[in-house]
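re: that chain from earlier
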Amino acid sequence: MRRWPLLALVTAVLLFSAPLATKGAWAQAARPQAFVLKLKGPVTPVMQAYIERGLREAQSQGAACVILMLNTPGGSLNVTREVVQAMQAAQIPVVVYVAPSGATAASAGTIITLAAHVAAMAPGTSIGAASPVSMQGELGETERRKAENIVIADLKALAARRPPEAQEWVEKAVRESAALTAEEALELGVIDIMAVSTADLLRQLDGREVRVQERTLRLQTAAAAERVLPMNALEQFLHTILDPNIALILLTIGVNALLFELSSPGGYVAGIVGAICLILGFFALGVLSVNWAGLGLMLLAFALFVAEVKAPTHGILMLLGLVCFVLGALVLFNSPVYRVSRTLVAAVALFSAAFFGFVVAKAVGAQHRPATTGRESLIGAIGTTRQELAPEGLIFVRGELWRARSRSGTIPAGEPVRIVAAEGLTLVVEPLVEAAATNT
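^ sequence. v structure.
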């Protein structure tokens, strides 16, 4: 009977706390979310896939907005257009925030920023320098004007809702590679907000009306919870190898591994590693749109390396290959968007020189090394006659019977002999005593 008061007390506590817990959970679930995607580096198909995935997930979760934290030197114009289309097709507001301090929205980044429903920048950031560039070299006058006019038309369409000063500036950003600081961009109306952090940005966004898919929405972000959506493992891996410096390292490792496999056949690990690195390296080159002259010089360098391993020329071909490799690496990515560190090029060249020197030395040494198999390997070995050599008969050497011929007269059976030559399948021998006297 004493248990009934305790049971009644527990039941009352549970009944009283259940509505409070449900209310708390509902309030937490009802709290708006602001998805944050961190975009750093050139605009590539990998970044495009990341943005599209983030927009889909934010929409499915009913987020209040998506914040694209941008820091890019630019990238492919075609990929940038795909990103802009995804942003414009979004069902929720997309905010581009150029941050952190020191970041830039150059070239393609300018287009992405102007395509946002709300554009923001952190103090100490910059935007502009949207002149089109080619990855294959300098643009001709006609091509340059055509590319500039296309980019200007795109930017003017995106800046149509902005003040006339902003629309005038976008043309300078393309024609003259003009750039603005965050303060200047805010003053001209190129951006809408200058915020020191994402929390400050969400505070300033609250209550702002934006036009999304022909609908006017009022942002409610004052109490929004930030939810950072990082790249998944595959996106992060592909984004990493699309760094020009990483691509150069992959190509170098791949070629070195394959040449090592060619110089020391019989294994498979070096060949497999080399093939994987080359595949990844060429994938990066295909996405980054390299300079064909630089790629041709690097392929020539690899051909010279292979020739040096197969037919050593005391380092002449290797030296020429290194010169081609360095020149090719320096011009492989001659765009301001994709740059290879000169320090890295020098380090890779020195490493390749040392590695190929080792491989060539090993190949030359193998050519001068005494034979270890076949008839030639028996020269100098000691055997025993099984038959009288008068002058031919059988001898036993290294566990095998061989036909032998004496060049020093008759040799009785059971006598030790030294092999001095090989003529076809017949070994030429001398008595061991006579051979030792001759050597003395």
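The chain is about 50% helix and 20% strand.
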